[in-house]
């Protein structure tokens, strides 16, 4: 009589597991890295994911487990060039993990290969355009700063020249006024001479 209850408990436990991720795909494929992305069916509470990465020859290389995340992508790093890999993803729910997704096969590129597909080309072209735009902005800002510095130096030279000419004009009259007073001896000496 207890057996159906145990089976019912086991069945309920497995029925609370989330469904396996779908649309697992590989993006940003390079010689030493790749990004695996996936989708999760609506309506299930997913708190993390697990990724199993292995080489085609069966050698398991990495098991990644992340919880407390809503991420739907993960970067696989330290891959070997021109090597076949298999990836599977599991969703982690409140009551356990889902079954593994379908196996996804991919092959890393040679180090000399930079443009594996049209979709990657579009992404690289966008980043290349972005870099060109950034370079234009940097050049414009540098030219503006150079113009400001040149204008400042020019204004500084004008102010410096004006200060030098003003100080010469101020010094000259005061020295002319003081020289006769010293030669004549001032008013007191002239009064004494008359007495």
Automatic annotation (TrEMBL):
CDD domains: FN3 (cd00063). Its main location: membrane. Residues 20-111 form the Fibronectin type-III domain. Residues 163-184 have a biased composition (Basic and acidic residues). It is found in: Membrane; Secreted. It holds the Pfam family fn3. Keywords: Glycoprotein, Membrane, Secreted, Transmembrane, Transmembrane helix. Residues 163-195 are annotated as: Disordered. It is a single-pass membrane protein. InterPro entries: FN3_dom, FN3_sf, FNDC_type_III_4/5, Ig-like_fold. It comes from the Eukaryota. GO terms for cellular component: extracellular region; plasma membrane. The chain crosses the membrane at residues 135-153. This is Fibronectin type-III domain-containing protein. It comes from Electrophorus electricus.
